[in-house]
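Consortium newsletter contribution from the modelling node. Members have asked for a concrete example of what our holo predictions look like. Here is one, prepared for the biotin complex that several groups have been discussing at recent meetings.
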Amino acid sequence: MVNNAEGEILRALRASGDYVSGEALSAELGVSRVCIWKHIRNLVRHGYVIKPSSRGYHLVSAPDLLLPCEFPGWEQKICHFWEVDSTMRVAKGLAKRGAEEGTIVVAESQSRGRGRLGREWSSPVGGIYCTVILRPKVSPAYAPRISLMASVAVAQTIRRLFGLPAELKWPNDVLIGGKKVCGILAEMEAEMDEVDFVNLGIGINVNCSISQQRATSLRDELGTEVSRKEVLSAVLAEIQRQQGMLTREDLLGEWKELSATLDREVAVVSLGEEIAGKAIDVDTSGALIVKCRDGSLRRVLAGDCLHL
Ligand code: BTN
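And here is the predicted structure:
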């Protein structure tokens, strides 16, 4: 594991952009020079290229890992795993034990990644797999909007960072060219009128290829690898921005603008029933309004949506 002291060393090396002496680092961290050398050795083991010389240490390059020290300002909130069964399971335990709002469980890979409707989420190295613990002060009725918000955050980030035409499929899949690049899973615990926590699981196919016909990755779309650190920092910042909008109408406005579902013929499987027709709107709680072929309107709260 890369610890706090190592995070401090990286911060000092990055701030200088040049060599920093072992003496200066040991004074800054209040530990011996031997200790500094051991921390440097650990960083190198994790893929950091650090050049030693008589002038000290120089950071040449950093690996694209989602270690807490790579997210300045968030370090204390990030719980990093090289591999875990599912970040949802870990986050649930943490949330039940009182983990604070904004705690993030992140893994480089998952052995039993979970998708919506009991499906498996393929989670090889190269993707982003995280669960954010939120404790919104809203009524449980607003909970479905939290995953809509997260899908808007991911789509906006992909558009802004890479100029790719990311769109949304109800309820909260992010698509590029009709193929899924990100999935979102929300788990909530609540009392009648108060949310205890909503765990927001986000899986993004970044530098990995998924062998499913209707899935893609950012690397496949761009033809080059991208920085997962950059993507995750931007998504987290966007979620923070969107959270303030949970009870506001504009949130749905943003979702509707990015939607690939509205005005389309769809078939939604909800509670074992198939509802086919034209998707005409989402209401304030995030439910999909479908105009069926017989002219009736159906309000669908959850389900699997197929674009026809
Ligand atoms: C979907 O089916 O579209 C939702 C996929 C959610 C996957 C993410 S990856 C991080 C978190 N941990 C999990 O096991 N699942 C979610």
